[in-house]
Fold these 3 entries.
Entry 1:
Amino acid sequence: MGDELAGGSSMNRREPRRAMLRGALAIGVGLPLLDLCARAIPEASAQGDPKSQRPQNGDRFVFRTGNQTGKVITVADIPVGGPPVPAFPMDPSGVVRDGSRLNQLLLVRLTLTDLSEETRGRSAEGVVAYSGVCTHTGCDITLWKAESIRFRCPCHESEFDPKDAGRVVGGPAPRRLPRVPVKVVDGVPVAAAGFLGRPGFQPT
Ligand code: FES
């Protein structure tokens, strides 16, 4: 069985889709499934407006869903082993970068010994941060497989390994999930750099 992500809610009730998603439960971002595809939602410009700029060194993270939406996420807020916490970055002045759906992040706190050496080096206190947008055709990643510790995309079943740099471990996604390196300051996860890799769907 999988787990629902923090702030979760069920998102799609069509039987065929339900069958396809067996083994993973909804992260729950409060959006109907049909609204999750990047091609249906124009991306805001990442230029100029700090709300639409990609995460940067020094950004903290805030809850993206649930009754704590907008509150700064601490390490203690992130359950060890998942489920992931949906987040947006927030710049040091307090501007939440929610002006672009490509800034959607998933924060997960994992056991250090489970992380690959490379991933451990980009994490802090087991916290890793990944793009919440699938690299296949850009759906929101809204599912979590707790038993195998994987993100799962609801659209075409791509799976990504947060323990190993977001590596693709199933489905048609052509690229790993981009990460945001994390450090911890006074018990609060903070971005140590911007995205490693470009988030979302890349047309060829
Ligand atoms: S958009 Fe994620 S698998 Fe196709």
Entry 2:
Amino acid sequence: MTTFKVLRFDPAKDKAPRVDTFEVPAEKGLTVLESLYYIMENHDGSLAFRSSCRAAVCGSCAMHINGKYRLACNTQVETLKSDIITVQPLAHLPILKDLVVDLTNFFKHYDEIKPYIIPDSKLPEKEFVQSPKERRKIDGMVDCILCAACYGSCPVAAGEPGYLGPHALLKTARFVYDSRDKSTKERLQLVAHNKGLFRCHTIFNCQIACPKNLDPSGAIAKLKMKSVWSSLKEILPF
Ligand code: SF4
Ligand code: FES
């Protein structure tokens, strides 16, 4: 048996969060997400959590598992090498119920950066052509699954709800460095302010938290440089 200690909280009924303990049979290959389903089906049907793809692509099952942000669906219990597994929701975000957090702000900021390709007004007759070399410039950045682990881990986002957040800034870089996108100036204007790029304190939590091993901190640093250079170019005579 593996012991699961799961944070529970229903703001409609509870005064404060608590931790409930459940026993789950130890089975080879069992994931944390499957364990939560086991708990829901065998111990407490009211346990709330999000999941969808079960394949590490939809981003809905990100949570804090044994001290680290992980995707529950691709975390096998045996790999945690512990008889006790703690499961908590993403930090810093309002809990709607148990492991389900409110992602309204997260997606609002994502919308704010215009997360789609903005091409020249003259569109190609057929598809956009992108060379392998051009594509390599956005390798990794395109793999963000919007799981919100970085956002939940960021103390700046926790203290300033208006801060765009590491996910939105990484996505901005993903479009700025995409050869098909022609709106770099507008994109930099959308993020180069004190609730965007310049609010990031380079704490690196996002880089550590990302379950897809992406580097939002690095992307933010590159965008900061690009933004400063583009401002300098406008005022300097060379
Ligand atoms: S950058 Fe990583 S942690 Fe942040 S939303 Fe994307 S996949 Fe999740
Ligand atoms: S269920 Fe989709 S990422 Fe885990």
Entry 3:
Amino acid sequence: MNININGKDVTVNASDDTPLLWVLRDELGMTGTKFGCGAALCGACTVLSNGTPIRACITPASALVGQKITTIEGAASRETLAVKQAWAELDVVQCGYCQPGQVMAATALLQSNPKPTDQDIDNAMSGNICRCGTYPRIRAAIHAAANTL
Ligand code: FES
Ligand code: FES
């Protein structure tokens, strides 16, 4: 099957029910998207499908034919760039494991809502778990990124 990933059509050999996360990491060697729970509970595997955050660990690759997938490797919208800059300025990252998913979720939020409230941020980011507890810095960085858009 062919899947559009980061603007390129990629031919994938995986079977139809193989989750996108395995295609990305094992077949394509794109390890920026992380495996956490494997059960849609932690958000470590968040990528965007036509701009909407999805959980790559439970989404069959075949369901994504015809969609535009964006992973952390190819995320370069102005919202992503603002997020990355704010992340660096506010020193958001601790161990880093959850952060590709956090950046993708924050990107999707700012693309749909450029001036989110605390509540908007909490709602949008609630599915992305951070064992290091970086939530206050994530929230502050999303506000900082929003202020630059
Ligand atoms: S690895 Fe996909 S949500 Fe946890
Ligand atoms: S920075 Fe360590 S899990 Fe989030």
